[in-house]
Design brief:
617 residues, binds phosphoenolpyruvate, alpha/beta, 16 strands, 22 helices, eight-stranded parallel β-sheet, binds magnesium ion
């Protein structure tokens, strides 16, 4: 077979998306070799760099199933955990069905039927109800209840004469394994037993899975599902792991043990590469390493434009272990600490003491630089097992009980976080940031809760931040941007979240690969909302930063700064490159270009005006 015909059709990288990551544009692309045995898949290059290693296919990975009894008082929680895994499995299969629909031919039709059958099983009362009964009556943990029920049903099918019915037994097993994989989110803890530089290949990788990846063992990853601005992509960029998501046809095209190259800059996955491709990519890797080393020399250089405008560059942190990296990159503070890490990969909720210890360590680690801690931003694509299925069950999770809405409803969640933040604030400068704010009353309610928690801690004689930490809001809902003047009156600072702002303005799911090409922060409506928010903050004389992924892409730097922003927060890996862009920039020229851009109605024209400006330097 000619290798050209083996090239798999995937998706193009979204034009003008922040997912078109830094470095991809200037990179001399290695020529894709197309020789016998080699297969090239295309998808969304969401985290730049090159990883070459041995594939570890999640589908074939062993799932360690522990069998144990849960205490009677924890049975309800165990049932919740099981139901959450079922909902997650249904969602995955639903996405795969939608994906299969895009293909034609008998094989695609067959796949569609098969997946439909899986979905029906995941909804069937006899299967799901049977497993629930086992958990409820025997008190066995969910994983072992699934395996026992599946084993029994599949065994019955296997005993049948009809080959069609026998085959159904295998399908049931597959469905059961999917549920178990979703239950044992820790199936990837075996990452730490992988050979260094392994490349993970999976249908889907959640943000929680990514949090378990140690770059010492994992070189990069590639998945079938996932968009460029979802949280898995953000985590990959944070950890500096090259990643390609949304790769159609990947499963089935790779086996565990194959050699794989993940080219996260160009959105390419090369399976069983030729010697030439291996050599090309090894050279490319060296180039990238050289470039990174040279950028690191800017660490202690102030981010000042050629005409003397000072810019404050801060880091977005996903995990506490990134503090050292943030300092090494020259971050002047943490502009966004996502606290979701405290809730991931566990069945219980973190207590105040644990949160306080984690936050204090980060505050101390930053040595007097400000740390902006965001309250829990769970919901939508960011799910954690410790909060159970109440979050997954909404009709439309992106618009449902998530982020600040959840915190205000579940007061214990909010108050525990606020108490930990107030206490950690006694150890160094700390700011509190609220996600997904849409109304003034939400801010006022949190302020009231903050004061009440502070009073309670003081009565207990506990040391807290004095004065109380500044309380800021994320501007990431279009309504919040439009009401920015009112919000500025009750907030101490703004942090503009362009990831969600783009998603909600354009009604494009940021984690959905099928609409990734439509996700565009350069849409005039998104830019208008950013401009609105910045101007409201400047009028009210409160600090304003951009902490969405746009902030970490040097392509957007002149535009954001031209709109009046002087504080950017981004993944630490992006920081040196953005600083380098700032050093070359003339703020006056950037401001004029931003005004010109704000007069445009077409995102294509905006893109061109920005790229022309960047090329002219
Ligand atoms: C954003 O929405 O832009 C943001 C920074 O928050 P997150 O990516 O965590 O939703
Ligand atoms: Mg957000």
């Amino acid at each position: 077979m000619k290798a050209e015909s083996k090239r798999r059709k995937g998706q193009r990288r979204p034009a003008g998306s922040a997912g078109a990551k830094a470095g991809a544009k200037t990179a001399a692309r290695p020529k894709p070799a197309r020789e016998e045995g080699e297969q090239i898949f295309e998808g969304l290059g969401v985290s730049p760099g090159v990883a070459t290693g041995i594939a570890h296919l999640r589908e074939s990975g062993e799932i360690q199933i522990l069998e144990y009894k849960v205490a009677p008082r924890r049975v309800a929680k165990e049932l919740e955990r099981f139901r959450e895994a079922v909902v997650q499995s249904q969602r995955q299969v639903g996405k795969l069905i939608a994906k299969a629909e895009r293909f034609h031919g008998a094989a695609a039709e067959e796949l569609g039927y098969l997946l439909e059958a899986h979905l029906q099983m995941l909804k069937s009362q006899s299967l799901i109800g049977g497993i629930e009964r086992r958990i409820d009556e025997t008190h066995f943990n969910a994983e072992s209840a699934v395996m026992a029920e599946i084993g029994e049903i599949a065994g019955n099918f296997a005993a049948m004469d009809d080959p069609y019915l026998r085959a159904r037994g295998q399908e049931i097993r597959e469905v059961g394994l999917r549920i178990v994989r979703n239950l044992t989110k820790s199936s990837f803890t075996s990452f730490d037993r992988l050979a260094p530089n392994s490349v993970i290949v999976a249908e889907e990788i959640t943000p929680a899975d990514t949090a378990l990846m140690d770059p010492k063992h994992v070189g990069g990853f590639a998945t079938v599902l996932g968009g460029a601005e979802g949280h898995t992509a953000i985590m990959a960029r944070s950890l500096g792991l090259p990643a390609v998501l949304g790769v159609a046809g990947l499963i089935g095209g790779v086996k565990s043990g194959d050699t794989v190259i993940v080219d996260g800059s160009n959105g390419r996955v090369i399976v069983n590469p030729t010697d030439r491709a291996l050599a090309d990519y090894a050279r490319r890797r060296k180039e990238l390493e050289r470039e990174a080393r040279s950028l690191m020399r800017l660490r202690n250089v102030a981010a000042v434009t050629r005409d003397g405008a000072q810019v404050n560059l801060q880091a977005n942190l996903e995990l506490p272990r990134e503090v050292g990296q943030a300092l090494a990159a020259g971050a002047e503070g943490i502009g966004l600490l996502r606290t979701e890490f405290l809730y991931m990969n566990r069945a219980d909720l973190p207590e105040e003491e644990e949160q306080y210890a984690a936050l204090s360590e980060i505050v101390a680690g930053m040595g007097g630089r400000p740390v902006t801690v965001r309250t829990l931003d769970i919901g939508g694509e960011k799910l954690v097992s410790s909060l159970g299925p109440r979050l997954t069950e909404g009709l439309n999770p992106a618009l449902g009980l998530r982020a600040i809405r959840l915190s205000l409803k579940e007061r214990a969640l909010l108050e525990t976080q606020l108490a930990a933040m107030l206490r950690a604030g006694a150890k160094g400068p700390l700011r509190i940031l609220l996600p997904l704010i849409s109304t003034v009353s939400e801010v006022l309610e949190v302020r009231k809760a903050l004061k009440a928690v502070a009073r309670r801690l003081m009565r207990r004689g506990v040391r807290i931040a004095d004065p109380l930490p500044p309380l800021g809001v994320m501007i990431e809902v279009p309504g919040a941007a439009l009401a920015a003047d009112a919000l500025a009156n009750v907030s101490d600072f703004f942090a503009i979240g362009t990831n969600d702002l783009t998603m909600y303005t354009l009604a494009i799911d940021r984690g959905e690969e099928r609409v990734a090409h439509l996700y565009n922060p350069l849409h005039p409506a998104v830019l208008r909302l950013v401009q609105f928010s910045v101007e409201a903050a400047l009028r009210a004389r409160i600090p304003v930063s951009v902490c969405g992924e746009m902030a970490g892409d040097p392509r957007f730097t002149p535009l954001i700064l031209g709109l009046g922003v002087r504080e950017l927060s981004m993944s630490t890996n992006a920081l040196p490159r953005v600083k380098s862009r700032i050093l070359q920039l003339d703020m006056q020229a950037a401001t004029q270009r931003a005004w010109l851009i704000m007069d445009q109605v077409d995102s294509g024209r905006i893109s061109a005006l920005l790229d022309d400006f960047n090329e002219a330097r």
